[in-house]
C-alpha cells in the first residue's frame, strides 16, 4: 500500500496536536519522580519535602504558562488538556499538606504558603484560559484548599469520635457549598457553540477531579487515623437531599438519619443535627429547579425553616452527649428556643412550630416527673391499648366532622365537560324535539 503523506499528517495532527498523549506522560513522570524523591530525601531530612513539593508546584506553573501560550496561538484543545492536568496538581498529589502537619511552625508556614499558591495558580489558570469564575466557585475552591491544609494539623489533637466529626463536617460543608451553588465559569472572549460545550464539559471534569482527589485525601485520613468510614455516612445521606424532588422525601431522610444516629452513634448526633438543619434550610431557600435555584413557597419555607431551627436546638442541646440517656435540659436554651418557636407560631402563623415546642415541653415534663411514663411491660401495654382506642375515637370524629364539608361532586370536572358538549339550545342533537 503506497505511503500517503497527507494521511500521516492528519494522524500526527490528531494524536500529537489535538490529543497529545505526551502531556499526560509528562505529568505522570513528574508526579512519579517527586514521590520517589520524597521517599529518599525525607529519610535524610524531614524538611526536604519542601524542596520536593516546590518541584511539583514549579511544574504546575509551567503547565499554566504552556496553556497560556497555546491559547495565544489559537490551540484551545491542548490548552484545555493542560488545564485539566493543573487541576490534578491543585489537589496536592504529593501529600505535601499531610507532611506539613508534622513539622511544627515551619509546617504551619508551609501550609499557609500552599494555600496562597493554590489561589495564585487558580487566578493564573483563569488568566491563561481567558476565563472568569463566580464568587461561589472561588469560595468552594478556597474551602477545599483550606480543609486540605488545616485538617491534618487539627486531627492529631482530637480523639477518634471528634476526628470523625471534624472530617464529616468539612466534607458536608464542602459538598453542600458545591451542590447548592451554580459555580459559573464564563469566557472573557466570545465563543462559538462548540467552544461553549467544551468549556461546560471541562468545567464539570475539573469539579469531578477535585471531588475525587479531595475524597482520596479523606480516605487517607480515615485509614491513617483509624477513623471509621461510618462517620461520613450521615453527611452523605443528607447531601443526597439535593437531588430529591419531593419535600416529604427530604423530611423523611432527615428524620430517619437523626433517629438512626441517635441510637447508633450518639457522639455524632450534634453534628448530624447540624447537617440536617442546614439541609432543611437549603431546601427552603435554595430549592433546585433544573440548573438554577429558587426559594420555596411561603408555607414550605415556614415548615422547613422551623425544622431547621428544631435541628439547631437538638444540636445545641446534645453538644456534649456521647452515650447513655438523653442529656439534661438546659433551662436557658429551652427558654430561648421556646420564645423563638412561640414567635414563629404567633407572628408568622407557622403551625409547624407547635410540633417542636410540644415535643420539647413533653420531654421536659417527663424528665421532671410531672408526667408519669410507663416503666414496665404491663404499663406500656395499657398505654398502647388506651392510645389505640383514643386514635379510633379521633378517626371516627374526623369522619363525622368531614361529612358536612362540601367538596363538590367527585365527578364535577366530568359533568362540566359533558355540560359544555351540549348545545346552548338545550338539545344534544339539532333534530331532537
The SSE order reads HHHHHHEHHEHHHHEEHHHHH
Q: How many β-strand runs?
A: 4
Please give the order of strands in the largest beta sheet. Answer: 1-2
Kindly state the mean pLDDT as a whole number? 84
Strand content: under 5%
* Class by SSE composition: mainly alpha
Please tally the helical runs, counting DSSP H or I stretches of 4 or more residues: 17
Shape descriptor reads elongated
Question: Span between N and C termini?
Answer: 92 Å
Low-confidence stretches: 409-433
Could you explain the architecture of this structure?
The chain has 17 helices and 4 strands. The protein has 433 residues and is mainly α. The strands form 2 sheets. A two-stranded antiparallel ribbon has the order 1-2. A two-stranded antiparallel sheet has the order 3-4. The longest helix has 33 residues, at 193-225.
What's the structural blueprint in terms of helices and strands?
Blueprint lengths: L4 H14 L2 H22 L5 H26 L2 H15 L5 H5 L3 H26 L1 E3 L1 H20 L5 H20 L5 E3 L5 H33 L7 H7 L7 H18 L4 H17 L1 E3 L2 E3 L3 H20 L13 H17 L6 H14 L9 H26 L9 H10 L12
Antiparallel strand pairs: 1-2, 3-4
